Amino acid sequence: MYVVGNILGKKHQTMAYPAAVNCSGAARRILLLPTTTTRPATRSFPGRLSAVTSRPITTLPSTPRTKSKSTPKTQPPTTPPPQPLQTRRTYHSTTHPPPPSPFTQAETTLLTTALTSHIPTHGFTLPSLTLAARDLSLLDISPSFLGPSPVARLIHFHLYTTRTTLPSLASQHSDLLSGLSVSEKFELLTWLRLKQNEPIIQHWQQALAVMAQPFQVPVAVRELAMLADEIYYLAGDKSVDPSWYTKRAALSGIYAAAELFMTTDKSEGFQETRRFLRRRLQEAEELGGAVRSVGEWVGFTASAGVNLLRSKGVRI
């Protein structure tokens, strides 16, 4: 095979030819015949046969290009701006609404009926709730919507209502509170709260036993802490130092002890309970005064010792 190259000035093009040799005597002629020729691109028509493949040539109909419709951009869903939590607060304020009640309207109606009509007779029991449901023309199984422990829910309702009604009770005794000191005010307010247990005091030990269960302890402790904070707030305490916590913790312990003492008090008008409360509050005040005195003494002694060492040349 011979390869003939032809340089046309622009590009180097090559074409291959087969060598056909026809020998006649001594002469040899070399015929250079092109093996393939480049055919111009022909247009194919439907129904005709291809000269190379002998197959019918079909052309796919050209689909006109359509402009894709631009889908309108969807705006992301706009969420409304968060509303300020005006119903939640962890502090006392006269310019904010009180926090929402943990009880619905239906629960409040049923629990109020049981608390005022049947607990003094049947105690903090499920029959009290069943009788209250009958008074409201409800089914006997209606207390089941209170949760897994309807009796604990009833006790919680008593603790909640007595705490939230304490400000109105204090306003009724405003003439007595006006001329008292802060310590005397929270003594009177604590006594007023204890007196709210008087109609159901014979069943209160049963209620304390229910609230001492592990699942009910957080509820009882939270209500006790909020009660102590409510009493100090109504008494006019404005402390902003660490005694804010110690005062409320001390009052919580004193109130719990006085409440337990009241369940066994047989004196007229629970006067023994009031004397017990007064003694505990006085002891706490004396202990607080002693702690403050010790703190002041330690601070004075430490300051004097530092000044003495500085006078001796010690760099402190």
TrEMBL record:
Region (Disordered) residue ranges read 38-105
Protein keywords: Lipid-binding, Mitochondrion, Transit peptide, Ubiquinone, Ubiquinone biosynthesis
Instruction: Spell out the Low complexity composition-biased ranges.
Output: 58-73, 85-95
Signal peptide residues on this chain, from the entry's feature table: none
The organism sits in which domain of life? Answer: Eukaryota
Pro residues bias locations = 74-84
Q: In which pathway does it act?
A: Cofactor biosynthesis; ubiquinone biosynthesis
* Entries under Pfam families matching the protein: COQ9
Q: Which Gene3D superfamilies match?
A: Tetracycline Repressor, domain 2
Q: Which InterPro entries match?
A: COQ9_C (IPR013718), Ubiq_biosynth_COQ9 (IPR012762)
Q: Where in the cell is it found?
A: Mitochondrion
Keyword Mitochondrion appears in the UniProt entry: yes
The COQ9 C-terminal domain extends over: 217-287
Q: Which family does it belong to?
A: Belongs to the COQ9 family.
Q: What does this protein do?
A: Membrane-associated protein that warps the membrane surface to access and bind aromatic isoprenes with high specificity, including ubiquinone (CoQ) isoprene intermediates and presents them directly to Coq7, therefore facilitating the Coq7-mediated hydroxylase step. Participates in the biosynthesis of coenzyme Q, also named ubiquinone, an essential lipid-soluble electron transporter for aerobic cellular respiration.
Q: What is this protein called?
A: Ubiquinone biosynthesis protein
- Species this chain originates from: Podospora pseudoanserina
